[in-house]
Amino acid sequence: LDIRLLSFLLLCANYVQLTFLNVFTGVKAQTLTESEAVVKRPGESHRLTCSASGFTFSSYEMSWVRQAAGKGLEWIAYISNGGGSNDSRQQLYLQMNSLQTEDTAVYYCAREPQ
C-alpha cells in the first residue's frame, strides 16, 4: 500500500512510474524474473529486462504487454524467436526512449505457447 501511494504521489509530481511484472504459465522449472520498479522523469529512457531460466528465448516467441491503472491490457511488442534477447545471459529487453506520463503502467513479459 505504501509503494502504491508513493507511486501515486510521484506521478502527480510529473514523474513516470514504470513497474515490471511477468506473466508465465507452464512448467515450474521454467521461470521469468522481473526487473525492479523504477521512476523516471518524462523524456528519460529506460530498458526493462526479463530474465529466464529453464528455457532459451531463441526457442520461443515473446511479447511485451502493459496495463495502465484502470485500463485493459495493451500489447506493445512482439519478438520473434531470439529477437531482442541475449541467450548467453538469458535476458529479453524492452528499450523505451522519450518516456511520457502516458507510459506509466505495469509492464509484462509473456512467453508464447510452445
TrEMBL record:
Assigned keywords, A-Z: Adaptive immunity, Immunity, Immunoglobulin, Signal
GO terms under cellular component: extracellular region; immunoglobulin complex
Metal-binding is among the record's keywords: no
Location of the Ig-like domain: 43-114
Gene3D superfamilies per record: Immunoglobulins
Signal sequence bounds: 1-29
Record's keyword annotation contains ATP-binding: no
InterPro entries registered for this protein in UniProt: Ig-like_dom, Ig-like_dom_sf, Ig-like_fold, Ig_V-set, IgHV
GO annotation (BP), single: adaptive immune response
Superkingdom: Eukaryota
Name used for this protein in its record: Ig-like domain-containing protein
The organism of origin for this protein: Labrus bergylta
